[in-house]
Amino acid sequence: MHYRASLLCAMKKNVLLWKDNRDAVDSVYFGGGTPSLLDSEELKDLIDSARASLNCGSDCEITIEANPGTVNREYFSAIKDIGVNRVSIGVQSFDDMTLKAIGRIHTSRQAIAAVEDAFSAGIDNVSIDLMAGLPGQTTDEMIRNASTAVSLGVEHVSCYDLTIAEGTVFGKRFEKNELNLPDENALIEARTAIDAILENAGFERYEISNYAKEGYRCRHNLHYWHNEPYIGIGPAAVGRFKDFRYQNAASIDKYIDEISDRKKWHEIAEQMDDYDDAFDSLMLGTRLSEGIDCENVLRGLEPEERERWRGLFAKLTENGFAVLSGGRLMPTKDGWNVQNNWLMDFLKNHDKGLTI
């Protein structure tokens, strides 16, 4: 308990470091790990600290991630009373066998109950996370997940494709060819069907992996995708301020020590140049259906580099991966399917031009 109190105290001190920053803050997001393990009084303490130290608007979007099996109606009622107005529930799948295969502690029934409990507690902005491309997952299951989401009446759905990182449990199993993963055609088929189900139910696919009903886009994540500043509080949290990116100490002990002793408040800091900023805007902005303002992205680049980037924009439109209209480059669904490919190709072939 003392250790937990020390961490919460350090996080409040971390917030205070930003007290002189007068940029408006219109979203607060409790994510990473399982923030719903914090009780309502602990959350209230952190929210009050943010409101007291930061320039939070009265309509600030305050989101907490929650895992089914760790929450109930009483919990949602308590956090609503202290100002939480949006919850993101980590469902991943409504199939019990898949949930067991990926090591989730909850069942499909518990996932459904978590959504119902949030609504019954009076929280009307509920998002759920789904995953596609999980081991053993069929196209039919991925499609059923989207249909179940619609039936629950949520306003926002995130549907992320599985990514496998080196060194993780899945990464090691992948290297040994132990994962039965859906092939690319199955994923594209599922994604096409998911698009149709959600769009027919009134959702807009406003980002590669995110769908929202009108008025329910995730304000917090839009700041990331617009390449705007954001403050990271807590161990391993990342942030961006002005022309640098930073990450707090990942070790909880080190984080508490550094913040409490007013030593350096971040472990990693990276100065960004104009090219870094432009590439981030390109990478993040082309995840959004609204795309990017081309000239705004290009303005900090050297003339020769601008021409190279304009060549990329032309190639993407020629190949049907984007539409250029009114100075904006907007991705198509085909473009979303290959976004990572053309981005990597663009980076690798810096001096050779795009090969897509």
Main attributes of the structure:
356 residues; alpha/beta; Transcription Regulator spoIIAA; 2 domains; seven-stranded mixed sheet; 15 helices; 13 strands
Give the SSE layout.
Elements: H1 2-16, E1 24-30, H2 40-53, E2 55-66, H3 73-81, E3 86-92, H4 96-101, H5 108-120, E4 126-132, H6 139-152, E5 156-161, H7 169-175, H8 184-200, E6 204-207, E7 210-212, H9 219-225, E8 238-241, E9 244-247, H10 252-260, E10 268-271, H11 274-285, E11 292-293, H12 294-298, H13 303-318, E12 322-325, E13 328-331, H14 333-337, H15 339-348
Parallel strand pairs: 1-2, 2-3, 3-4, 4-5
Antiparallel strand pairs: 5-7, 6-7, 8-9, 9-10, 11-13, 12-13
Helix pairs in contact: 1-2, 1-10, 3-5, 6-8
Strands of the widest sheet, in order across it, are 1-2-3-4-5-7-6
CATH topology of the largest domain: Transcription Regulator spoIIAA
Order of helices and strands: HEHEHEHHEHEHHEEHEEHEHEHHEEHH
CATH class annotation of the largest domain: Alpha Beta
The rounded distance between the terminal residues' Cα atoms is: 55 Å
This entry's quaternary arrangement is single chain
User: From the 3D coordinates, which CATH architecture of the largest domain would you assign?
Assistant: 2-Layer Sandwich
